Model the fold of this input.
Amino acid sequence: MINIYFFKLASFLYCLATLSYSAYIFFLKEGLSKVATRLVTLGFAFHTLAFLTRLIEAGYTPVTNLHESLSFFAWMIIGILLIANLKYKIKVLGAFLTSIALIFMIFAFALPKEILPLAPVLRSVWHPFHVLFAFLGNAIFTLAFCCGVIYLIQEHQLKKKKMGAIVKRLPSLKVLDDLNYQALKFGFPLLTLGIITGAVWAEYAWGRYWGWDPKETWSLITWFLYAAMLHQRLTVGWRGRKAAIMAIVGFMSVLFTFLGVNLILPGLHTYSQWEP
Done:
């Protein structure tokens, strides 16, 4: 399958980009960050080809099993990185986001890659919409998570008055907090749309909009977490450290909803349930 060839090439380029970004953090050489950006952009292009060729080969939106879902999540994360770089140009952010995307790609590579006939439950016009909104929202929350982690690292360095090389490599606390808020502002509506389209799809597939399936329950828990974050931002003025910590907590809920529920808790959304 040609899509696997493009997938492997994208994974290799993401690996090189991660190493280049990491080398930039250690050596602070501008050329390394430029090389990393070019590598991740090229990797994204090949990853896009992998997705498109698999779409053509399968004849349906190829986000139906764990291999495809991990690959699609990684693709979305890299896409968000490239968009964020256009405005914020936070070079160190690439080291964090490409690392996460690479981990997803490695796990995806280890899983079965065969294209199987589409399960009846997935034969719905709502499936691609649900997938797009849910994964795009999750990718934006991954950005918020990385900003939260970098914020805590930078804050720790500043409190210790360690104004050395690490501080120079990291963006200001204000920039990180602003990007965290922007991610929350765009990610939350997408999460909401993902849940709504998922409910409509559930009515089409199972004859009910909501059934308190483990995936549905944890999606709602994640929604409430991010709703509370946005509310605290807008009404109480939560910023800085609290917002950074909550971005990390929220992403842990996203990961559990995406992976933990599907792999641990039995339910209609378990990947094995989707297979014919």
